[in-house]
Specification:
The chain contains 3 helices and 2 strands, in the order αβαβα. The chain is globular and about 45 Å long.
Length: about 70
């Protein structure tokens, strides 16, 4: 399960690829959100650059002001 902030996704998954710790048949569940400003890629697209694993995405409300308001 990935919840790394968007700005760290490439660095983390590049390191995971090098370490070869994640078997390719294990799905990665991504909870990171956003669009990378220079490439316009989603976190899932960034992850897919480094690992061939199946990727699932979960999402929900997360705007701080909306969360505070309930």
């Amino acid at each position: 399960i990935n919840t790394v902030p968007l700005k760290g996704v490439a660095e983390v998954f590049s390191a995971l690829k090098e370490l070869r710790l994640i078997k390719t048949e294990i799905p990665i569940v991504n909870g990171s959100k956003g669009i990378e400003p220079t490439s316009l890629k989603s976190p899932s697209a960034i992850i897919a650059q480094y690992l061939p694993n199946p990727i699932a995405v979960f999402s929900g409300p997360n705007l701080a002001l909306e969360m505070i308001k309930g």
